[in-house]
Predict the structure.
Amino acid sequence: MSQIIAIDIGGTQLRAARFAMDGQTALQTRRTSTQGDGQTPFERLCDLITNILPADQPVAGIAVAAPGPLDPYNGIIFSTPNIAGWENFPISAKLNERFDVPVWLGNDANLAALGEWKFGAARGHKHVLYLTISTGIGGGVIIDDRLLAGTRGLAGELGHVQIMQGGPLCGCGQRGHLEALASGTAIANFVREQLAGGEKSSLSRRAQISARDVSEAAQQGDALAIHALSRAGEHLGQAIAGFLHTFNPSIVVLGGGVTQSGDLLLAPMRRTLEASVMDKSFLKNLQIVPAALGDDAGLMGALALAHTMLED
Amino acid sequence: MSQIIAIDIGGTQLRAARFAMDGQTALQTRRTSTQGDGQTPFERLCDLITNILPADQPVAGIAVAAPGPLDPYNGIIFSTPNIAGWENFPISAKLNERFDVPVWLGNDANLAALGEWKFGAARGHKHVLYLTISTGIGGGVIIDDRLLAGTRGLAGELGHVQIMQGGPLCGCGQRGHLEALASGTAIANFVREQLAGGEKSSLSRRAQISARDVSEAAQQGDALAIHALSRAGEHLGQAIAGFLHTFNPSIVVLGGGVTQSGDLLLAPMRRTLEASVMDKSFLKNLQIVPAALGDDAGLMGALALAHTMLED
């Protein structure tokens, strides 16, 4: 029976997994660093795929999760912050030349949403809001059992809605976006600014401060760190209220490293969310749950994409 | 051949139109006031329908556009600001009892989007963002040729995303929503506040000020009125940028009386929108156009709903 190759492209690691057509457990997994050994990232990707191809089975297709912005319909990565040379990179056509099987491409956050819907925390739900909160904030939305993609496949950039006019600078160059107020980067930036303004904290002795440092300090009772997480949670709750009004999902799935801070982030999020909906009917039977796929979200999302494409 | 009855329920008027199964031009239209003559609004609605039923043809169904919030799946109007007694009103079941034909219900702004997609300004587009800007701000979204409805049919409340923390009070009770900053009500409120604060304007002699008054004064060159429309346009542009990131539509359709102000509102909207997208690819081939259906948006939207239901 045919097999499926799933790929997750990151700035530091390339991951691959091989699945049976009807399987959800990888038959084999491999990973390698994205950069190194005098090879281009694309050469390293091709080697990784070659090494995981089945010995004696046909391949139904290769599904690739990659950081956006990208064009999933034409298989083109517009740019990838951490991979030099991948500007307007036609990855699907290039992989197709090398392996002569169908290649499907998707934005990693969108595919993580698809993965959570098909294999993870949102199984059985038809309307899913997914947010991943780490260095940045990515999103994915399932509407009536289908992934929201938009006319050019750019939809679901939920980290980039403005929630504070004139707010902090976002990684995208705009101001006051959700990502600029509630991502790991935003949390660390806020703490650094407060320290520079004279706030006292156990973090003031550190040369560098990450969101993980803030989370650990908050768990030790540091008031500034607790405030930083609480503030991020409130912004998140406000934004999610708007997403509920927009999409009316039955489940909200929250992934990404920053959500590991738990109730220090999520209790203020829930409190603000509940106070911010225009009508309680948006909360009726609503589930808010952690993502289930963890680091495998990209690979499982790519597998879900392959299933979706093969079903059509 | 069967015919379709389309109904548009408003706080002041009830409208009905009768269509051939494959027709887009009404065979007959009727209207009546929502209140009056010692009858309940529901009795008046039933009389209106009775008077427009075809003499010698079967009826395929009755499609109803009504102000939300409502449950389109179960045909229940949760509440209607201007019609007393319609709390949790099972309008579809009640009409079905009286007329013994299928009854379909939809939120009027959502159905206006569906109407513009099927019969109006957005024909041929698969991904449509529709906003109607009048007393309030309503929205509707077409994704991949399907109306966004959500798990309980409450989706598309695009007037109720927060764009200014701690901003003006919204009709829904929350603060800083798009509706509280860019609707006709918001524009008139802003002018009244500025006048109360001592601003000079040709409008200062008026006892009451409507958005239409502001629009007329702006067209006469009144600086405060021009500022009020420009400010609303900027908020609208900022919000639409977020909606582009969220939905990545190929067309934005703007309806509602406030858009009659034209470039006084729309030029600042476009300028802010273009400056606020995270990437120019969201603007590529994007059309921004006025709604085509005008006052018939509700009726034509109801007709589009009937077509959609009969095709399924």
The mean pLDDT of chain A is 96. Residues 126 and 146 of chain A are 8 Å apart (CA to CA). Chain A touches chain B at residues 69, 78, 125-127, 143-144, 146, 148-158, 160-165, 170, 172-174, 177, 238, 241-242, 245-250, 276, 278-279, 281-282, 284 (CB under 8 Å).
